[in-house]
Amino acid sequence: MRIGQGFDVHAFGPGDYVTLGGVRIAHDHGLVAHSDGDVVIHALCDAMLGALALGDIGQHFPPGEEQWRNADSRTFLRRCAALVAQHGHALANADVTVVCERPRLAPHVERMREALAGELGCALDQVSVKATTSEKLGFTGRGEGIAASAVVLLQPRAVAAPVAGEDDAELHAFVQRVAAEVEADVAHPLAQAKSAAGSAARSREG
Ligand SMILES: [Zn+2]
Prior knowledge:
- α4 links the parallel β5 and β6.
- The protein is α+β, with helices and mostly antiparallel strands.
- The strands form two sheets. The protein has a five-stranded mixed β-sheet with strand order 4-1-7-5-6.
- The radius of gyration is 18 Å and the shape is elongated.
- It contains seven helices and seven strands, in the order ββββαααβαβαβαα.
């Protein structure tokens, strides 16, 4: 089992909607970001990458890169899910808390769970989204932005399962590139776990 946590913040700016958990929600502000500013998905991606010790979302999807301008963050989530599968794990469960005074998120939480579970290819009861306020304290309390934190638990995969969207050539290339990076870094925890498993198997065979 591996556990990971993630945290993300985006400030409010001009606009008339926010995108949270893959759901578009009408609001009198937007979120300032290079991508769509989906703090729920960004925190969740960072938790998944953290569980794999694979760095953070900024390293895999650099905000300076033109291809991620106004990007739909569901792309990030699908790629992180593919990395989880590629590294021999499956999501056990995820729990996200999103903090803001406005917009009121309770009416949208179920749609967020459905959207996230759909992208992750898991059951609805494996994904929790909770919305809260900070009691008018701090930057979220002053209505300056939205924050989200996420925790995920990954379990080893019993059998190799097809990665969602594996027919997506770009996603496949991304997963292969990260796998090669881990392979090249012998000090990486996943590379070590793999070689330990390999030598254990070899000694059993011997
Ligand atoms: Zn973000």
